[in-house]
Every structure is written in C-alpha cells, then in structure tokens.
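ok, trying the design again with the full structure, not the truncated one.
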C-alpha cells in the first residue's frame, strides 16, 4: 500500500472494497497488505467468494463483512491491527441489504482475536 492515496472518507482507506454488488464477486490468489483501514471490505454484497487470499498488516481487520454474504477458502490473515475478521450488520443498512454471513471453509486466522461478530 505504499504511496496509496487514502482519500478523505473512511471507505476510501480499504485496499479492496466490494460495495453493493448483487451478483457474485470472486477474488483468487491475492495478497492485500498495509491498508490504513481494512484489507478487504465487503459491504452490502450478496455473494463474495474468496479463495487463496492473504490479508495482512492492515490497520483494521484483515476482512470486514458488513451486511454481506462471504465464503472464504484458504484465507490467511496475520498482523492486522483489530483482528482477523469482523462480521456485523451495520446500524443503518439498506432495505435490501443481506444479513451478514461468513463461512470459513479453510484457512489460518493468526491474530490473537480471530473473528469478531457483533
């Protein structure tokens, strides 16, 4: 994330932001590191599929699942400031936003606090 323009909005600080996608999003064979917020942020999206993903050394969580449905296979997180994965429903989601759901098929969440759901 060297020389990354962090913008002036919180959402601008995520390295990967999947926002309001009503179809399938697949990310494979990707390393995300050094975000000033969350490495990967899924927001109000219905089918996010992660495979062979590393999300490390981000200021926030490695993965944030906010009113989204996310499935992860071989997800590896480490060194993230908050925790490995955050799963929650926002305070004011859109009317058609899904309830948050996170399915971890396999992986290694190395942070002391691995998954937070609130």
């Amino acid at each position: 994330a060297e020389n990354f323009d962090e913008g002036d909005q919180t959402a601008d600080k995520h390295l990967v932001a999947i926002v309001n996608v009503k179809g399938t999003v697949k990310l494979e064979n990707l390393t995300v590191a050094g975000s000033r917020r969350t490495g990967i942020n899924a927001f109000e999206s219905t089918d996010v599929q992660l495979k062979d993903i590393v999300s490390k050394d981000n200021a926030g969580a490695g993965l944030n699942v906010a009113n989204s449905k996310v499935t992860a296979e071989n997800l590896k997180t480490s060194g993230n400031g908050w925790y490995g994965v955050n799963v929650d429903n926002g305070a004011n989601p859109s009317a058609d936003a899904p309830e948050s759901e996170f399915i971890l098929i396999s992986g290694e969440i190395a942070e002391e606090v691995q998954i937070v759901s609130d």
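Keeping the full-length input from now on. The chain has one domain: 10-111.
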